[in-house]
Structure formats: C-alpha cells, structure tokens
Design a protein that fits this description.
The structure holds two protein chains of two kinds. Chain A is mainly α. Chain A has one domain. Chain A contains six helices and no strands. By secondary structure, chain B is mainly α. In chain B, helix 5 packs across helix 6. Classes of the chains: A mainly alpha, B mainly alpha.
Chain lengths: 139, 138
C-alpha cells in the first residue's frame, strides 16, 4: 500500500459528514447506506423506494464523475471472486441483522450518541481487524 | 420532486467523500484493519472528519420539529443492545475484513465497472434478502 492519506481522508470524511447532516436536515433521513439499500428492496409505499433509489444512483454517479475527472478510481480488489461472493453475503446478512454499517452506525449513530451504534461499531471494527490478522498473518 | 433531487445530490456528495478519502479502495480499508502490518490511519481520518461535522450538527438539526422539506424525522427507535445487533455487526465485520468493502464504497465502486464489485454488490443484496427472510420467519 502507498503512503497513508490522512488529510485526504479527513477532507473526504468532512464531505461524508456534511452529506449525512444535510440528508437529515433536508430529508429527515439517516444516511446509513445498508439501510437505504435494504429498504430499496422491500420498503413500502413506493415513495419510500424513490428517495432511496435517488440516493443510490447519486452514489454511483458521484464516483463516475470523480473517475471521469481523475481518469479512473482508486480501487484495487484484495480477494478473488469466491472471496468477494462470501464477503458480500456476510456484509449483506450482517448489516441487515445488525441494522447498520459503517455509515449508519459509525457516522450517524455515533453522532446521535446511540449506545447500540457504539457497541456495533466497536464490534465490526474488532471483527474486521481480527479477520485481517487471521487472513494476512496466520493462514 | 425536491426530496428526490436533494437525495440524489447528497448521494453524489457522499460519493465524492468516499472517492477523495480513497475509502472506495479496499486496499485502504484493509490497511486500516491490518494493525499487525503496515498500519494505515487514513480511515481514522475519515471517521474523524465525518464525526467533526455530524457530532455538532445532528443534535442541532434534531431540535427542529421536521426536516426542511417537510418530512418528519425518521430515526431508529430500537434501544436494546441484543444478540442480533452484536452477531450482525460481527458477521459484517468479518465480511468487511475479508474483502475491504462495506456497502457505501461497494455501491460507489460500481462506477469502476469492475466485475468483482458487481459480484460483491449482488451477493450483498442476496445476503440482505436472506437476513430479512430469516428474521421474519422467527
């Protein structure tokens, strides 16, 4: 991996936090991506799905515009197809069961001082670190 | 129509944040989670930057009776820390550590037109569907 990009991270983080705060201010919604995606599949009525669809399309378009400006996206996949399949299933199942992911629990939940989000965030970071330790340094 | 435009625009802004911070790159995320290797603090900067905005603004926004576009606030109502929360977060953490992808960066990463990212997102949707099905059955 290249040098750490702490200040790029800080700048990007400010934009992510701003987007989350403005979604709450304008739409009254929590910017939890797993929840937004999950509701796209089974939320009723249809108006519940429309704003979710608009946000998801915005996510893809934003990255597409960034990619167009910079001539590509910084994206190096770390595992093969079988790993991506298993990881995707775990991420989908786990975020639905645990009601949130990095954005919903990590960025929004912590800002709402939610004890549930604090426990969830500590749990997924610890399990992520343990998994990387086992896959990179043990097996 | 306005809520849809605002939702779309904020999806774009969120995505710029993911791209500029390089959180869209699984290598960055694995670098942060790899505490025994060459640890990469970038993700800590992202969380710090995001919380620097949301921590002061969320309580201030929630003092309003409804959102600017008229919708009431839709906030999670659960308060209990139960097994579902912890098992769910643990499974998510394992998947996150395996691939270095979580829902936001994976969806934004579709813009790379990488087949692997498509596969991950499809599996993620299948996983969500399975969880919704299995918890409804209980």
């Amino acid at each position: 991996m290249a040098e750490s990009n702490f200040f790029g991270g800080l700048t990007g983080g400010l934009l992510i936090g701003l987007a989350a705060a403005l979604l709450l201010l304008f739409n009254g919604r929590i910017a939890g991506i797993s929840g937004i995606l999950g509701g796209l599949i089974d939320a009723n009525p249809i108006s519940e799905r429309l704003w979710r669809g608009a946000f998801i399309i915005g996510l893809v378009c934003g990255a597409a515009v960034y990619s167009w400006i910079h001539g590509g996206l910084p994206l190096q996949l770390q595992v093969r197809s079988s790993g991506l399949l298993l990881a995707g299933l775990l991420v989908g199942f786990g975020t639905r069961l645990g009601s949130g992911c990095t954005s919903g629990h990590g960025v929004c939940g912590l800002a709402r001082s939610s004890p549930r989000s604090l426990v969830a965030t500590a749990t997924f970071i610890a399990c992520g670190m343990l998994t990387v330790y086992l896959t990179r340094h043990v097996f | 129509m306005l809520p849809l435009i605002s939702s779309f625009a904020l999806g774009v802004l969120f995505s710029f944040g993911l791209a500029i911070s390089e959180m869209i790159d699984p290598a960055r995320v694995i670098g942060f989670l790899d505490v025994a290797g060459r640890w990469d603090p970038t993700l800590l900067g992202v969380m710090g930057g995001a919380l620097a905005v949301t921590l002061p603004l969320f309580p201030w926004i929630q003092q309003r009776r409804k959102s600017l576009l008229g919708e009431p606030f839709h906030l999670p109502s659960q308060a209990r820390i139960d097994a579902r929360l912890i098992i769910g977060a643990a499974l998510f953490g394992i998947g996150w550590g395996l691939a270095g992808l979580c829902p936001g960066p994976a969806i934004a990463g579709l813009a790379s037109r990488s087949g692997g990212v498509f596969l991950f997102v499809l599996a993620m949707i299948a996983g969500q569907w399975l969880a919704a099905r299995s918890t409804r059955a209980n």
